[in-house]
Amino acid sequence: MRIISGDFGGRRLKPVPGRATRPTTDKVKESIFNIIGPYFSGGQCLDLFAGSGALGIEAVSRGMDHAVLIDRQYAAIQVIKENVATTKAPERFKIIKTNAERALSQLQTPFDLVLLDPPYAQQKVVANLQFMQQAGLLNPAAQIMCETSSETVLPDTLTGFTFKGRHLYGLTAVTIYQKAGL
Predict the structure, then answer these.
(1) Order of strands, edge to edge, in the sheet holding 138-149?
(2) Is residue 133 part of a domain?
(3) Domain tally for the chain?
(4) Above 80 in pLDDT, residue 23?
């Protein structure tokens, strides 16, 4: 795994050891950012199921000002800290060890980009999106990237969001939404 492009491009990232975390492949990561970016002019990013932190780190590398990286596993948090250290810009990241529901109830800063890559067996993507909408955690026109199993089909119609597309990459599906209205 590596950071593909931007300020930190080319730097190697460590995966989380074991099988509890499924890393996003570089091919899928590059495709995701070609769809939602590929570069940003600042903003706040939330990587809610961060794993190794690769998606949030990529977003900051490509121009996001700051990323909040959240994961509930101790091993993942240790790897995220090591991967953030490779950027030599740790002040651009906040790492939180907690579960998604607790994190969402405690966060207060609205985000411009949300990266949701939950464990495939524990997906609550729609509930997470609805909570973020109601809690004011999304800036106008915020983009949301949801990585799921290709067997999971997220709704095309979701109150408060505009469906931007679904893309399949083997066993992985990437669904993009944007917060509706300004």
Answers:
(1) 93-97, 66-71, 44-47, 111-116, 138-149, 172-179, 161-169
(2) yes
(3) 1
(4) no
Is 122's pLDDT higher than 70? no
Tell me the residue range of the domain where 172 lies.
26-179
**What does the pLDDT look like over 73-115, one tens digit per residue?**
999 999 999 999 999 999 999 999 999 999 999 999 999 999 9
Beta carbons of 73 and 93 less than 8 angstroms apart: no
56 in a structural domain: yes
Domain membership of residue 12 (yes or no) is: no
Long-range contacts, 94-99 (Cβ 8 Å, 24+): 94/66, 94/67, 94/68, 94/69, 95/50, 95/53, 95/69, 95/70, 96/68, 96/69, 96/70, 97/70, 97/71, 97/72, 98/70, 98/72, 99/72
Within a domain: 114: yes
The CATH number assigned to the domain holding 76 equals 3.40.50.150
20: exposed, middle or buried (Cβ count in 10 Å: 0-12, 13-18, 19+): exposed
Handedness of CA 67, 20, 34, 159 (dihedral sign): negative
Q: How far apart are CA 117 and CA 7, in angstroms?
A: 23
Specify the pTM: 0.94
